[in-house]
Amino acid sequence: RKLDFSRVQLEKDMRNFSGGQKKKALIARSLCEQAHLLVWDEPLNFIDVISRMQIEELILEYKPTILFVEHDSAFCENVATRKIQLP
Questions:
Q1: How far apart are CA 2 and CA 87, in angstroms?
Q2: Between vectors from CA 57 to CA 78 and to CA 21, what angle results, nearest 5°?
Q3: Range 51-59 average pLDDT
């Protein structure tokens, strides 16, 4: 719900979702899992500003272990406890 999706929406066929909605739904699903490690490749592509802030808040609240590649340095600074920056 914190990403503005109901459980019913997340269980629907996502073919009619926009690129941003698909990405947001996949992030929401992954955060609901009880995984030991999440691997995300550029999770903020196609995501609007409000959703970016919501995702950041969820990560800070739940503190999942995530290995991700991201170009948004502000997001990385806010959520990462460790980082490797490539030149």
A1: 35
A2: 110
A3: 93
Looking at residue 71, the DSSP 8-state letter turns out to be S
SS3 content of the chain, % helix, strand, coil (to 5): 50, 10, 40
Hey, what domains does the chain have and what are their CATH numbers?
A: 7-79 (3.40.50.300)
3-state SS, one letter per residue, for 23-63? HHHHHHHHHHCCCCCEEEECCCCCCCHHHHHHHHHHHHHHC
> Taking the model in full, what pTM does it have?
0.80
| Rounded Cα distance, 14 and 22, in Å | 6
Structure tokens, 41: 């490749």
Residue 61: predicted pLDDT: 92
Q: Which two tokens stand for residue 53?
A: 């802030």
